[in-house]
Amino acid sequence: MLELVTSPWLADPDVVAPGTVRAVVRDSWSRAEQSQLDPDRMLSPLLFESSELNEYRQAHPLAQMMPVIRKLLVRDADNDSGMLVAVGDAMGRLLWVEGDQGLKSKAESMMFVEGSDWSESVAGTSAPGTALALDHAIQIRRDEHFNRLVHAWSCTAVPVHDPETKAIIGVIDITGGDQAVDRHTMPLVEATAHAVETELMVSRLRNRDSKPSTSSKFVLFNNLPSSAKNKAARATMHILGRDTALVTIEDRSIELTQRHAEIMTLLAWNRSGLSAERLSELLWGDSSFTSRLRAEMVRLRKLLDKFHPGIAPESKPYRLPEQVEIDAQQVVALLDRGAHRAALSAFRGALLPDSVSPGIEEIREEVRLHLRESLLNDASVEVLMDYANTEQGLDDLDVWHQVLKMLPAKSPKRSHVVAHVENLVFVQGS
Question: Which terms under GO biological process does the entry name (predicted)?
Fold first, then answer.
């Protein structure tokens, strides 16, 4: 009879006394804190557009192994399983997320979607990111996640290695409820990773005579599209629901003043660049303020060059290098992909709400309307109702009318919605 051996990486509630935190989790939390991650304001960034993701996935060595993974794991993660199977690259970026479609839609709210970054330095403690950071299998249960948005979920992940160089080439993860971290899940995922590594070696031996052997690190880097290479170290600027900007790149962050945030936002929104006169007009409503703009630009460049060389604005015309994205652009990208739940979660509030710069006011309204129209026309009733209860949707009669129209006749939520609609009609009609 086999004896069950417990592991410090296994999220077994019987292994650790109630109220205590496993050392492996505590150490991961410490790394997240050192990276200045905020557990209440974290959302994994979307690093790939659809075309870029498809191009990168096709070139990734795990692409040819997906039939093996689907046979061993995804086949059992059907629409009633309550389980998702995710496959990521060595940097923690999710390339495939498959399984229970209803759960996949819910996972959008925490940005657990294809193309998002779940490395530990960005997403904090999670099975995919921490497994890669430690280079071994791990289970993370509910509130062991550093990000409080993920506390309803549990996950098991195992790194995948190149069979010859032993370098990490990716990660396989199962995410869901408590069943995602039961005693049988880790051996199953470990067996799948071993099968993938074995099949990679067999495939390589078959092709050795016709194709020279190449290390996985070379394959991963040289098959990466140029746009994706840049995104590996891309800076993200957070301006939604903030009066200042928080710029994050890799494991470092810096806060910019409102004026500098306005400049960076306008340049991020106008990728082809802006003349000094046009940028002055968008900032102050006057194209003649170019001297004032140049003084601000000198201060901004000095600050950013000290923080991270390569992300400061360029000139003639003024423009940002490709390594800078803003969170508002990610919201728009998610909406365009139909990921409404993820877009709503990523929308942390109005863009630089206290700014009165004409250009910022225009962008703020553009993002607000894009979110509103996309949700109003295409979102599920659950997502639309979540939006209706935000600051932007609370007084929007059209949104509440649409919620009422979409709710089933016997829904217990109808009475609340009807009362809110009647109150809005009374207030707005008076």
Answer: phosphorelay signal transduction system; regulation of DNA-templated transcription
The three-state secondary structure class of 199 is: helix
Q: Are the C-beta atoms of residues 244 and 355 closer than 8 Å to each other?
A: no
Least confident window among 282-296, 353-367, 403-417: 403-417
Instruction: List, in order, residues 6 or more apart from 13 with CB less than 8 Å away.
Output: 141
φ/ψ of residue 366, rounded to 5: -65, -45
Looking at residue 360, its amino acid is I
How many Å apart are CA 395 and CA 407, to the nearest integer?
19
pLDDT at position 239, please?
A: 94
**Global model pTM greater than 0.70:** no
| Residue among 374, 391, 342, 355 at smallest CA distance from 265 | 355
The mean pLDDT value for 37-55 works out to 83
Is 138 in contact with 9 (CB distance < 8 Å)?
yes
Q: In this predicted model, what pLDDT tens digit does every residue of 183-230 receive, in sequence order?
A: 888 988 998 998 899 888 888 777 764 544 443 333 443 444 444 444
CA angle 411, 338, 239 (to 5 degrees): 100
Start-to-end CA span in the chain (Å): 78
Give residue 200's identity as a one-letter amino acid code.
L
- Looking at residue 1, its pLDDT comes to 31
Give the domains, in start order, of the chain with CATH numbers: 23-222 (3.30.450.40), 235-327 (1.10.10.10)
How far apart, in whole angstroms, are the C-alpha atoms of residue 28 and residue 33?
A: 9
pLDDT digits (tens, 9 = 90+) for 187-197: 889 989 988 99
Angle (CA) 411 414 419, round 5°? 165
Q: Kindly report the length of the chain.
A: 430
Instruction: State yes or no: pLDDT of 148 exceeds 60.
Output: yes
Six-digit token string for 303: 């600050």
Tokens for 208, please give them.
């050795």
Report the pLDDT value the prediction gives residue 310, as an integer from 0 to 100.
Answer: 84
Work out the widest C-alpha separation in the chain, in whole angstroms: 84
Listed in sequence order, the residues at least 6 apart from 159 whose beta carbon sits closer than 8 Å to its beta carbon are 131, 132, 135, 136, 137, 168, 170, 171, 193
347 within 8 A of 238, measured Cβ to Cβ: no
Round the average pLDDT of the chain to a whole number and report it: 85
Nearest to 93 by CA among 118, 111, 110: 118
